[in-house]
Amino acid sequence: MIKNNKIDFRPFYQQIACSNLSHWLETLPLQLSQWEKQTHGDYSKWVKIVDFLPHLMADHIDLKSAVKSTRDFPLSTGEQQRLTHHLKQLMPWRKGPYHLYDVHIDCEWRSDFKWERVLPHLAPLKDRTVLDVGCGSGYHMWRMVGEGAKMVVGIDPTELFLCQFEAVRKLLNNDNRANLIPLGIEEMQPLAAFDTVFSMGVLYHRKSPLDHLTQLKNQLLIGGELVLETLVVDGDINTVLVPTDRYAKMKNVYFIPSVSALINWLEKVGFKNVRCVDVEVTSLEEQRKTEWLENESLIDFLDPNDHNKTIEGYPAPKRAVILANK
């Protein structure tokens, strides 16, 4: 919800006031008030773009097999062009895809591929309270709602992702079962209130991976499930790649462990029942350039003569999904 050219978080406060997240209200409003004073220079522009989006009511919404809204009577060509124009002003769109009133936001990442790898292994999300750490624009949050989650909270400090999320929410009949809060995990008090916590594509960006794993554990209820998806390398329990400068052109990649090392880390911070359920090399079909992304993508990050290596000579991106319980 947008009010006075700002995203209004008060409906979320009201929503959690009667839930097991109510103690978050001791810190969250003040944190978000301080956050609003330090927002990106383009934040107000992005919020206005969301506000300018048409108020459409979907006759059909699919969050089970896609993130999709449709009407029985399609938009006119002009309406479709205007909607596309507004949404493209929020580029780059990295995680998706979204199908919104005949507009296909073909994001850089086919995040549905990852979801299809993860979903079969999860404890059922029906009626669960879920936290998605580093949620981006929120694609996976909507898929969690589609699996019956009672409440999904995403956290990501990037203002553009927040505005992309609010744009999608507006085009999904303002569904309030998912909410994005612009904070990092390190700013959250230990709530110990979530049935399931997701951290996908975050761990290798943390300077202290064990601290990150502890922060994730602190958000879970006893018995709750962690879903951790991250870059890995081949090797034994002592194998950890520490890139000297960049990895796949990313400066903020600090530690890439082997699966065995990662399981050891999780057990070291107190997780139980730790198991790897999927390992997959990132394909050029899953991450690629599209008209919704002006930047470089995976093909530019790999050695042009050997796609098994990054441009720096490290092993090409391989990602594992690890489940564990508190």
Automatic annotation (TrEMBL):
Keyword Transport annotated: no
SUPFAM superfamilies on file: S-adenosyl-L-methionine-dependent methyltransferases
InterPro entries on file: CmoB, Mo5U34_MeTrfas-like, SAM-dependent_MTases_sf
Annotated EC: 2.5.1.-
Catalytic activities: carboxy-S-adenosyl-L-methionine + 5-hydroxyuridine(34) in tRNA = 5-carboxymethoxyuridine(34) in tRNA + S-adenosyl-L-homocysteine + H(+)
Enzyme class: transferase
Keywords: Methyltransferase, Transferase, tRNA processing
List of residues binding carboxy-S-adenosyl-L-methionine: K95, W109, K114, G134, D156, P157, T158, I185, E186, M200, Y204, R319
Any one Gene Ontology BP term: methylation
Keyword Methyltransferase set for record: yes
GO molecular function: methyltransferase activity; transferase activity, transferring alkyl or aryl (other than methyl) groups
Domain of life of the organism encoding this protein: Bacteria
CDD domains, A to Z: AdoMet_MTases
Family, per entry: Belongs to the class I-like SAM-binding methyltransferase superfamily. CmoB family.
Free-text function comment from the UniProt entry: Catalyzes carboxymethyl transfer from carboxy-S-adenosyl-L-methionine (Cx-SAM) to 5-hydroxyuridine (ho5U) to form 5-carboxymethoxyuridine (cmo5U) at position 34 in tRNAs.
Complex and partners: Homotetramer.
Name this polypeptide is given: tRNA U34 carboxymethyltransferase
Organism of provenance: Bisgaardia hudsonensis
Gene name, Swiss-Prot/TrEMBL: cmoB
